[in-house]
Amino acid sequence: MNEVRRILKSVFGYSSFKANQKEVINAILAGRDLFAAMPTGGGKSLCYQIPALLFDGLTVVVSPLIALMKDQVDAALSLGIPAAFLNSSQSQEDATETYRRLYRGEIKLLYLSPERLAVDGFTERLAAFNVSLFAVDEAHCLSEWGHDFRPDYLALAQLRTAFPTVPIAAFTATATVRVQEDIIRLLRLEDPFILRASFNRKELFYQVLPKTEVLSQIAQYIGAHPDQSGIVYRLSRKDTDKTVDYLGKLGIRALPYHAGMDKDERARNQERFNNDDVQVIVATTAFGMGIDKNNIRYVIHGDLPKSMEGYYQETGRAGRDGLESQCILFFGTADIARLNYFIRQIEDPAEQRRSRENLDRMARFASVNVCRRKQILEYFNETFEGNCGSCDVCTGTTNEIDAGTDARKLLSA
Ligand code: ADP
Ligand code: MG
């Protein structure tokens, strides 16, 4: 048994790799730069954690989820991996203690927020340690084509200059080629090993339904599935609150999640949803990254999402346990007009163009009678042939939406 397999078993307790993990780990161990696009739940963490244990020096993991960093470190510690983090949320004492352990060479895995990296003089400080590998998690945050662009992430561009000989491994669940190209260019990856996993989520059933009385449509679905946990996405904060009220009046336990709420309340609602205290969370797209709930049986979109990328990521939160789950999109042409209205307000022409293209693609997805799975995978440059057996089009259960002509008219407006 080789060293990698031994660690997989002895440290993580797994006897086999998930798809693509072995190839990724081998490329990293061979000292190559790497770009890996693997779906959520694909097991990306292990791909840098195993090399971290095998390399002499320190592995630095850049992650945007400050709120989750402590959990990630605790999880690593519980496996016996010497890990620590540095970010703006910790006390000065905690940071000092982490530095002390770093100087003593006691840490193998250091989680870092991008804004920490951007602090003046920080990379010089980091250079005092023997860094073996940089792992950039959620690397799509570098790209404006990603669904979660973070200007902070641009600070990562300096890694290659400051550490010209240290390999960089970028991980993301965003698979568009445009995002991939942005990441490779901005991180200045050199002849990277590129891994693009399949983004097909076989367990998800995709369905588009005509949007009429959307509140009652949402309530009907939830009411018919009283033992199941689900997410309802709404475009605006107002509609999010309205939906929660509506469901509440029908006795359905639902909580809101959007950026207009204070941080603590948001965290509390997420926690209660994770613990199955409530059946449903109604959210704007602010809800998402870092959800770690595997028994979500349905994701309902009450409004047309702004992009295929967002739609894929949001629906992808269902069925992480591999059991069949429903993705329901309520679609009416009024949503196209509404999103178009927002797009017209965007001042930056490049951003406006991107948004328009995203909407165009999304509206087409919802309006044409083509296998939903095929359309999603094509968006990610993956081909899919034949009957998927798991969408409204392939199962012949499409509900006619009067969108066909209207949608096209609106799009070209
Ligand atoms: P990602 O970051 O790609 O979304 P994670 O790294 O969080 O995925 O892993 C998802 C889940 O899969 C975790 O619970 C992890 O422990 C588990 N996992 C990772 N690798 C394996 C494996 N080889 N066998 C079984 N489970 C695994
Ligand atoms: Mg991850």
TrEMBL record:
GO terms for biological process: DNA recombination; DNA repair; DNA replication; SOS response. Residues 217-363 form the Helicase C-terminal domain. Keywords: ATP-binding, DNA damage, DNA recombination, DNA repair, DNA-binding, Helicase, Hydrolase, Isomerase, Metal-binding, Nucleotide-binding, Zinc. One of its GO terms (cellular component) is replisome. Residues 25-193 form the Helicase ATP-binding domain. The keyword DNA damage applies. Its EC number is 5.6.2.4. Its cofactor is Mg(2+); Zn(2+). It is an enzyme of class 5 (isomerase). One of its GO terms (molecular function) is ATP binding. The keyword Nucleus does not apply. It catalyses: Couples ATP hydrolysis with the unwinding of duplex DNA by translocating in the 3'-5' direction. It comes from the Bacteria. Belongs to the helicase family. RecQ subfamily. This is DNA helicase RecQ. The chain holds residues 1 to 413 of 601 of the full protein.
